[in-house]
Amino acid sequence: MRILLLRSILALSASAILVGVASPAAAQSAQGHPYQQVISANPFGLLLELFNAEYERIVTESSTAGIGGSTFSRSDDRYVNVDAFWRFYPSGVPLDGWAFGSKVGLTSVTDEGTYFGFGFDVNRSWLMGAQDNFYVGLGFGLKRIIGSPDEVSLKFIPTFRIVNVGFAF
Question: 3-state DSSP call for residue 94?
Fold first, then answer.
């Protein structure tokens, strides 16, 4: 199982790198700021034993794609999640404003297994600061786990970006 999880994480990472390399020229002219990508993490997670990080890149005039991961530990239980995602920004300004997204990826929970899943989320992000490159993002979503046996309680997983902070570049 761990080898499968590692291979899947590597495949999702490679996909994110390909998305990052193949940014269309249309995205560069329509966004209203000079930045093409954001890297962010949740600093408050250190207090809550929850960590998440994301890489997001503009791919069209009103959408982004990226990869994110999170982990949560409590006593002997551990939750690990890795997703590739796509977000639509209705305002036409990717990386800044409301976004509605979809995601696919893997979720692993101690004593329950590792499963594929898909889901949706709602996010709000801001670019702030003197150069508008300081990033703050919030979000909430739900992920449906596929293939878990009926006796396993793992069917739906809530996904949170409590407060991610980072930089646009």
Answer: coil
Domains with residue ranges and CATH for the chain? 2-168 (2.40.160)
Q: Which two tokens stand for residue 95?
A: 């990386």
How confident is the model over 44-63, as pLDDT tens digits? 887 888 889 999 999 999 99
- In sequence order, what E strands does the chain have? 37-41, 50-60, 63-74, 77-88, 97-109, 113-128, 134-146, 156-168
Contact call for residues 112 and 106 (beta carbons, < 8 A): no
Q: For the chain, how many residues are written?
A: 169
- Please enumerate in sequence order all residues whose Cβ is within 8 A of that of 34, keeping only pairs 6 or more positions apart, or say none: none
- In sequence order, the 6+-apart residues with CB closer than 8 A to the CB of 157 are 79, 81, 107, 117, 119, 142, 143, 145
pTM over 0.85: no
* Distance separating alpha carbons of residues 121 and 103, to the nearest angstrom: 8
